[in-house]
Write a structure and sequence with these properties.
Organism: Serratia rubidaea (Serratia marinorubra)
Strand content: under 5%
Order of helices and strands: H
Oligomer: single chain
Protein name: NUDIX hydrolase
Helix content: 10-25%
Distance between the termini: 29 Å
């Protein structure tokens, strides 16, 4: 199985709100990766290796 995920960065001002199919918004750190899916952990690992997250 191949899973494609795209990660985006942006500057944002305002308030983020869950809406429609988005049930919850949460800010996670690399230390919170145990709360994520296997694929999300792989993304977080790659972002950490690229020094895009702490």
């Amino acid at each position: 199985m191949v899973v494609n995920i795209r990660c985006f960065t942006a500057d944002f001002s305002g308030e983020l709100k869950a809406n429609a199919e988005i049930e919850e918004i949460a800010w996670l750190t690399y230390a919170d990766r145990h709360r994520c899916s296997v694929v999300s952990v792989q993304v977080l690992n790659a972002l950490k290796e690229m020094q895009l997250i702490d």
